Amino acid sequence: MKKIIIVLMLVVMLALSACTADKTSEVTTPKKVSAQQWTYKLITQVCTYDTGSNDVICKDLATKDETMLSNIIGSQASDGYELDEVVLSPKGKTFAQTFIFRKAYVAPAEEAPAE
Fold this sequence. Notes:
This protein is of the alpha+beta class. The protein is 23% helix and 37% strand.
């Protein structure tokens, strides 16, 4: 009985090893993948923590206007930007923060040719 089972197993293994996959059904077409393009916006401020309001207050270097950090981030977010990175650079005795915002690049629409 054991010999019959072993012979049957060998026959099944030989039959399976003789099978090949149909290569015509496995044709794949390569997909062209393009890198995401971004639009960047940089805002440089000198930010300090205000203990009275428990908020971070930022001062614009050019206009000397002061605003809360949450207002800067919120206004850019409403325009579709996301905060990507913050870079610190020395500015006198303190540091200036450059906030780098980004959003997905949208190509301008092509105009129809004039007739």
